[in-house]
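Consortium newsletter contribution from the modelling node. Members have asked for a concrete example of what our holo predictions look like. Here is one, prepared for the nicotinamide-adenine-dinucleotide complex that several groups have been discussing at recent meetings.
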Amino acid sequence: MRPFAVPALPTRVVFGSGRLASLRDELRAAGLGSALLLCSASGRELARRLAAELPEATVGVFDQARMHVPRHTVEAAGKTAVSLGAEACVAVGGGSAVGLAKALALEAGLPYVAVPTTYSGSEMTAVWGITEAGEKTTGRSERVRPRAVVYDPDLTMSLPAGVSVTSGVNAIAHAAEALYAPDRSPLTDLMAGDGVRAMAAALPRIMERAGDPGARSSALYGAWLGGTCLGLTTMSLHHKLCHVLGGALDLPHASTHAVLLPHTLAFNLAAAPEARELMAQALGDDDPAACVWRLNRRLGVPASLRELGADRAGLVTVIEQALAVPYANPRPVDRDDLDRVLTAAFAGDAPPRLSRTA
Ligand code: NAD
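And here is the predicted structure:
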């Protein structure tokens, strides 16, 4: 067995249908004072209901959370927290609400509990980001981890099927890259494999019936595992390219991950036999890249970067930026490799087949 190190799992997690009812207990157990509920527009109703149900534990609702955590939103939320005397926050929603809570934890020292309603997995990482004047600054700090995470699949029932599947494939991407990460361990391998298995099985069922409770529960479980892998390991080419594509071409986060994943997997798994084997086991398919590509087609995920609105000429900038800063990857990446991967993803081609003996 390879030598390995496993960091302590830093975040308390409670999971299950109806677990939202334990939010009061979680706030109390974490020793948190009156909390400001943070959400985006879609979470307003739920946040208001929570504020009404927990008057002794909450001070109000801030419902302006936005994708990529704009600086002005952080400032507005901070002012609201001060004016209402908030001592903590509860983030109810996806990566946008959690991202805002992270920014307030970092800058205003407000601890928080996360109640995720998408599959982004941000609540399980120490990575924060704030966008100002079109530029997103990101960093890593243990201060931005939530004190607890309450996963309640009931809250994901209203997540539209289209958002669910791209967000779900995003979670598969977190797990997939953990399988060839330089700091992977037997524990992250187990979590990644089971996360991929659970998510890949759940998404077609959600597409058929968005309110399928078993499928929603499996998908949220897969999202937790994917997010945990993201938080415990170093991501590679796939996450790097998605980050650059999002910033340079202003593409939607989860869909970009979903479109790109078959192509980055085809490239990387050819040089990562253990990861390929674990992905193959999780998906029940000897060619995991082709399998994810077919899964995307079945789920109705956009086929290409072109469909997402990418400008072909902009890919040159993406390649430059992706080459500028080195990062961990199971195989070296040069300009031609990036051009091949991005061209296929732009056109919506099937990824190259992984040979049996790769
Ligand atoms: P999001 O929070 O913006 O949610 C996507 C959409 O779904 C929004 O319109 C939201 O209002 C809606 N929505 C959320 N929950 C819903 C529900 N239950 N019912 C109906 N609608 C609902 O986006 P996301 O995909 O969850 O997260 C993406 C963001 O998270 C990006 O900004 C990304 O950079 C960030 N992210 C950060 C990390 C990290 O580790 N820091 C990890 C993953 C993602």
